[in-house]
Amino acid sequence: MVEEKFESEVKEKLEEKKDQESRKINYFEKLLPLWVAICIFIGILLSQMVPQISEAIDSLQIGGISIPIGICLFLMMYPAMLNLQVSELKKLGKNPKPIILTLVSNWLVAPFVGLAMVNIFLPGDTVAIRQLSVAIILLSSSPCTAMVLVWGWMAKGNQEQNVLNTSLNTITIIFGYVGMVSLLTGIQNIPINTWLLLISLIFFIGLPLVLGILSKRFIVRSKGLEWFNDTYRPFVGKVSIVALLTTLIVLFSLNGDVLINNPDLLLLVSIPLLVGFVIVVGYNILITKVFKLKYKEAVITVIIGSSSHFEIAIATAVAMYGIGSFAALGTTMGLFWEVPVMLKSWILEIKSD
Questions:
Q1: Domains of the chain: total
Q2: Which residues have a Cβ under 8 Å from the Cβ of 349 and sit 6 or more positions away?
Q3: 352/171: higher pLDDT
Q4: Gap between the Cα atoms of 328 and 101, Å rounded
Q5: Is the pLDDT assigned to residue 270 strictly greater than 70?
Q6: Exposure string (b/e) for 295-327, b if CB count within 10 Å is 16 or more?
Q7: How far is CA 43 from the centre of its chain?
């Protein structure tokens, strides 16, 4: 009995050590904030040096969906869908408290904080104000299902909760996103094209989800689970980062004129985004202390409960208003501000190396 207990403890320590070693990130990933800044600069530079790029890319669309942006956003979403584990949903009853707190933050707190930010910081009824308002609503109504897996992993949170929460978010966003966006824009009396909203959801969430499930089953059966986890997922993960950086270049090259000619709008949308983000993060930190969650559960609750699914927000804004629109610029700025903040978990890990 004593030997079995000793062996179990040794096994746990070895697994923990292996997990810590697996958290190491390569040189390119450590400099991701720099690459993000460089890609934004390149995009703005292209908008001034090659202005024809906007018309060329804008002409490549089907049913309101930009083909280049669609491909990039799809490549950003597909790797995240490979992490969906329906079997994990069976563990909901094991430790439901942090899961429930995260769902409350994602679907009750964050959306209505976003709505409050719109009412406080974006008064008026101009085209720009309406589109920036929609951008904030799109961001606040979309709980993250992708990058939070990385943030939570690097922050050394509870990975079982991390996978469970992101899997649950993937399912709830399919059923809740269109309804929540429609509700909040309706409260603001802002008309939106619900059909394009639904198309964006199907194309950027539904399709990657189905392909993720099918490809995972096929690859695991043909190549094995170990090859899937150690070779295939890391590869598509790198593709996802390249797609993110490419998306930034394209979006800022198309929004460069809007950005340069309207710096006041950049400030106008950044203030509610940052204030809203601080409020939601503060709420989640407070609520994890009120319910006395341990660090591993608390950090996942804060990260997932505070993050936005900027991929679907950008895709929806582009589909409804166009690539060079104020809405596209607003959702892109959500990505611009959230990524550096969430990269704090990576930075902390780097300092501990």
A1: 1
A2: 23, 25, 154, 155
A3: 171
A4: 30
A5: yes
A6: ebbbbbbbbbbbbbbbbbbbbbbbbbbbbbbbb
A7: 21
